[in-house]
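Chapter summary example.
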Amino acid sequence: MTDRKIRMGMIGGGPGAFIGAVHRMAANLDGDIELVSGCFSSDPKKSKQAGKELHLSALRVYASYKDMIRLEKNLPDNERIDFVSIVTPNHLHFEPAKLALENGFHVVLDKPMTLTLKEANQLKEIALKNDRLICLTHTYTGYPMIKQARQMIKKGLFGTIRRIVVEYPQGWLSTALENTDQKQAAWRTDPKRSGIAGAMGDIGTHAFNLAEYVSGLSTTKICADLNTVVKGRKLDDDGAVLLKFDNGASGVLFATQIAAGEENNIKLRVYGEKGGVEWKQEDANSLLVKWLNKPTEIYRTGNDYLNSFAKHNTRTPAGHPEGYLEAFANLYRNFALTLKAKLNNKKAKAESLDFPNADDGIRGMAFIENVVASSKSKEKWLDFKV
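The structure predicted for these 386 residues follows.
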């Protein structure tokens, strides 16, 4: 019987990184996970500095991810890490994840899963072969009201889903920020590090994932229009996609990073025969539930009338707002509960198993490749290929 904290190692997330600190706070929030080792930078000095700031043993802070995985594997069972959290730029996802999985470690991976669809499929095969878990951090699926919406749709309360509208506007790349010393802008607009898509790979994948996750539907056809608005930029910074789903529903997705004045307001609307739901991140604790023949209802986080999935992912009573870090932490908590059940040869509860996995990662990479192909094509509709 394993009744202890799950031990975590981190690759990336050192000085100057944004998302690494978010991962660490999220993993630590519920007390289920302990960060015990890491290779926080490709620069050994920076990695050592990060380890010192995080109060880790110097013996568990490594100069390279290869050293980390090799040396952690050789530690006793009661010391070595259980999983690796990889928070590097996109082009550095595949090799560390592959090595970790092959050496018996579970993996938490920042999205998008890899640089290419081929790599994503390979990672899934390696994970299955080695009986390891993969969690992909599509943060927005961790919000309680998103869980509520998904279960209401799953129960058929709105009838057949007909229309999905999802949008993700940001404005932070309205200028050529990558030409300054802004590290986050630099790698996100560099095809060698980001991949074949810019805004669509960075935030469009979140919107796509949310649309499929909440609706329970799968995309079958797309028609995409990608734009590069800022002069000299090498990747798309704006775009829109028409979607067809496997039940016949239609959808619209737009993602942009040149909407001046916008911050991070991802918004989702799903409409069925009898009603629908509306949610936006900037008011994440509210879910609008709309009906054909009665007034709109407002569901709020932390109330007893919510379903078990929403309650499972809520920590505080109604009126005490939970936000981005808590949603992020829900992914880590559910992953940790699932991993702990696996270590004890038990099956985790359905609520704990509800986190993005390798299949979601593969569909995200397929979205990127299909959208880019569609935007370049003269055909109106392309089949969504995975």
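To summarize the output: The two ends are 40 Å apart (CA to CA).
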